[in-house]
């Protein structure tokens, strides 16, 4: 008992030094809306976590210090700071025509760019979403358009054209180019393989990137109590089946819950698995059943990110299936890395004391912190 308490105290001290992880929250995909006008001009309207990017943090995962820095810079933004911000956007975004980068004019809306009057009562600072407007002219004879950005997180891009009633939508992973959009063909069809690849990569990236940190911790919680692959396989399989069910139901608008409630329940499910690891050394028969129930909630969480990506109506099943495959490959990647790091020590007499208990304690504390934080945000 004393050994457990000492380990728990050390864990608490450790967690106090990783506020960046504790304060992580997912703001989803940023939005980039591209509009091609009849007069040969184009606009790109972006809503993103600009403050996180400027502070050098992963979008949606700013520490309190970085949020304070971003707030201070926003409140005191002058012409020099605005020029620096515009320069940052120019460097980290890349609209291209026929493979050649274009350089549109960039406008930062006065209020949202940080020109905030502190003398006003009730002024609040929202670092989650800022508006950026880019304006340019389509190069003469251009046939294709692509979009790429770095440092802003994954994007949900939509493209519309004056003579085309359909809006083209797709997810774009941070640092990669979007599907070339034809400026001359009346129909936009990225093809089955390209759609499959895009959504597979989105699902995989959602897990292995920090955006999926809560899902990573859930899988690690399952891993820590399973010293054999077979029981771990059945747990992950039940989780897979469950989240695939609710993900599909949500995407097809059959059943859904408010995202705030879902995120709180996901945090609670992570805490439960971690606490159970601390209370027992053996897998109980009900564990796969409990994991299945938790998987239902995680599926609703996945649905929010998938719908933000803009699922093509003519490839709904394709996108849904490959997103699920990407998520599962992400899960297996997490398990594989965990096995490579500590798998060979699972039979050691000290494994539970120095790996399972500290690891589960950290996971439990982080998950409980998220549960409290997300529950408070509901009100």
Provide structural commentary.
The chain is built from 12 helices and 10 strands. The protein has 379 residues and is of the alpha+beta class. The chain folds into 2 domains: 30-188, no CATH class; 203-378, no CATH class. The strands form 2 sheets. A 6-stranded mixed β-sheet has the order 5-6-2-1-8-9. Strands 4-3-7-10 form a 4-stranded antiparallel β-sheet. A hairpin with a 2-residue loop joins β3 (93-97) and β4 (100-101). α6 (192-208) packs parallel to α11 (316-342), α8 packs across α10 and α9 runs antiparallel to α12. The protein is elongated, with a radius of gyration of 23 Å. Residues 8-27 and 111-128 have low confidence and may be disordered.
Question: How do the helices and strands line up, and which of them pair or pack?
Answer:
Elements: H1 2-16, H2 19-22, E1 30-36, E2 41-48, H3 50-54, H4 64-75, H5 79-92, E3 93-97, E4 100-101, E5 105-107, E6 130-137, E7 144-149, E8 155-161, E9 164-172, E10 181-182, H6 192-208, H7 213-225, H8 229-251, H9 259-279, H10 287-308, H11 316-342, H12 351-378
Parallel strand pairs: 1-8
Antiparallel strand pairs: 1-2, 2-6, 3-4, 3-7, 5-6, 7-10, 8-9
Helix pairs in contact: 1-12, 6-11, 7-9, 7-11, 7-12, 8-10, 8-11, 9-10, 9-12
Tell me the total number of β-strands: 10
> Over all CA atoms, what is the radius of gyration?
23 Å
Q: How many domains, in number, for the residues?
A: 2
Total helices: the number is 12
Along the chain, the helix and strand elements come as HHEEHHHEEEEEEEEHHHHHHH
Q: What characterizes the major β-sheet?
A: 6 strands, mixed
Shape: elongated
Helix content: 40-55%
For the record, give the distance between the C-alpha atoms at the N and C termini, rounded to a whole number: 38 Å
Stretches where pLDDT is under 50 for at least 5 consecutive residues are 8-27, 111-128
The strands making up the biggest β-sheet line up spatially as 5-6-2-1-8-9
Strand fraction: 15-25%
Structural class: alpha+beta
Mean pLDDT: 77
């Amino acid at each position: 008992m004393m050994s457990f308490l000492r380990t728990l105290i050390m864990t608490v001290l450790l967690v106090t030094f990783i506020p960046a992880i504790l304060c992580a929250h997912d703001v989803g995909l940023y939005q980039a809306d591209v509009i091609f006008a009849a007069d040969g001009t184009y606009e790109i309207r972006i809503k993103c976590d600009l403050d996180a990017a400027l502070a050098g943090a992963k979008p949606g995962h700013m520490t309190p210090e970085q949020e304070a820095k971003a707030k201070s810079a926003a409140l005191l933004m002058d012409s020099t700071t605005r020029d620096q911000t515009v320069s940052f956007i120019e460097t980290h975004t890349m609209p291209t025509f026929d493979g050649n980068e274009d350089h549109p004019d960039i406008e930062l809306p006065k209020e949202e760019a940080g020109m905030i009057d502190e003398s006003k009562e009730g002024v609040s600072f929202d670092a989650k979403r800022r508006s950026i407007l880019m304006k340019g002219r389509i190069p003469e004879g251009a046939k294709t358009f692509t979009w790429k950005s770095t440092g802003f997180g994954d994007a949900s891009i939509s493209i519309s054209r004056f003579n085309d009633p359909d809006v083209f939508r797709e997810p774009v992973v941070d640092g990669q180019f979007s599907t070339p959009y034809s400026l001359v063909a009346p129909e936009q069809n990225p093809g089955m393989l390209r759609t499959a690849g895009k959504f597979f990569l989105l699902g995989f990236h959602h897990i292995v990137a920090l955006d999926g940190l809560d899902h990573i911790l859930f899988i690690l919680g399952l891993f820590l109590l399973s010293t054999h692959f077979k029981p771990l396989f059945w747990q992950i399989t039940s989780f897979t089946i469950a989240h695939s069910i609710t993900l599909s139901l949500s995407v097809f608008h059959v059943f859904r819950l408010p995202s705030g409630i879902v995120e709180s329940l996901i945090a609670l499910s992570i805490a439960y698995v971690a606490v159970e690891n601390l209370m027992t050394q053996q897998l109980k028969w009900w564990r796969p059943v409990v994991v299945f129930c938790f998987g239902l909630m995680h599926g609703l969480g996945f649905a929010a990110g998938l719908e933000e990506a803009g699922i093509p109506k003519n490839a709904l099943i394709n996108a849904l299936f490959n997103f699920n495959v990407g998520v599962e490959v992400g899960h297996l990647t997490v398990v594989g890395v965990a096995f490579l790091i500590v798998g060979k020590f699972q039979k050691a007499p000290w494994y539970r004391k120095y790996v399972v208990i500290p690891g589960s304690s950290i996971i439990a504390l982080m998950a409980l912190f998220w549960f409290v934080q997300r529950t408070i945000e509901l009100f």
